[in-house]
Design brief:
The protein is α+β, with helices and mostly antiparallel strands. It contains two helices and five strands.
Length: 82
């Protein structure tokens, strides 16, 4: 099973104020499917955007062979700078 670390949409679709979860999930599953592990949150609606990542869990999944999406890579870089 290939594991991918990516964003999962959450929030209120009525007023288009979405926030996102950073999750580990099987590569073959759709974005809204059940995730294997919750690794953090990203809220772009706040100013400045809120990014919280559990780096210990993230490192555990990367050691096991998970791959991050490009968007998650950039968010993780931004969260380490703060």
């Amino acid at each position: 099973m290939e594991v991918r670390i990516r964003l999962q949409k959450a929030g209120k679709p009525a007023n288009k104020q979405y926030n996102f979860r950073i999750v580990a999930m099987s590569r073959s599953q759709s974005r809204q499917s059940r995730h294997l592990d919750l690794l953090g949150h990203y809220d772009p609606s706040k100013n400045p955007a809120v990014i919280s990542v559990n780096h210990e869990k993230l490192e555990k999944w990367l050691v096991q062979g998970a791959q991050m999406s490009d968007t998650v890579k950039s968010l993780v870089k931004k969260s380490k700078k703060v």
